[in-house]
């Protein structure tokens, strides 16, 4: 079954495991499979809406998440550390990978969760690019038991705001988010307005109906851990639909 996959920032491989700290959650059991891109379109699209992941700085350190992990798109942008466990025939000892959640692995209810429905509830499952999978396991292993934990994201540069829409409909794709990685709330402000709450369209695409043309745009974004980051005058007065801008960044 073909996945829309988005591919994430340069693949990070560690030869050790991080100690549990407030910035790292406990290890949890899951399984992981891989996909191999058959044509260039497999590198774009995806349920989080990030577009071309290589162009947008995510590279191939990405993952599609099963229903119980995807949280209806709230999780988009979160970072996970994954390591192979149990099957010493196939695991590459002492390695782990760090991936960003960029896509959804849809359930297949024609099969049971213990058969072909690998992404069916209640399974915790990651689908990885083969380049990422082969950092922790031999590719012949296919459906592997793994452990995962949520970690803080580290990103280069500021948070990116890609402005789309038309007329009074404004949509903003927010990417390259450090810290928690995923957002729970977004507000937008023009020079002639107060702060306007934006609604989640899907993934990390947010929208609002407002006439904000010919006004510099500011954003206030709140991550899933409750940290709020104001980014003032991110877009200049003469901004246009289709342009992208860079703001401040969360601490990682």
From TrEMBL:
GO terms for cellular component: membrane. Residues 1-15 form the signal peptide. Residues 45-158 form the Expansin-like EG45 domain. GO terms for biological process: anatomical structure morphogenesis; cell wall organization. InterPro entries: Expan_Lol_pI, Expansin, Expansin/allergen_DPBB_dom, Expansin_CBD, Expansin_CBD_sf, RlpA-like_DPBB, RlpA-like_sf. It is found in: Secreted, Cell wall; Membrane. Its main location: secreted. It is a peripheral membrane protein. Residues 168-247 form the Expansin-like CBD domain. It comes from the Eukaryota. SUPFAM superfamilies: Barwin-like endoglucanases, PHL pollen allergen. Keywords: Cell wall, Cell wall biogenesis/degradation, Membrane, Secreted, Signal. Causes loosening and extension of plant cell walls by disrupting non-covalent bonding between cellulose microfibrils and matrix glucans. No enzymatic activity has been found. Belongs to the expansin family. Expansin A subfamily. This is Expansin.
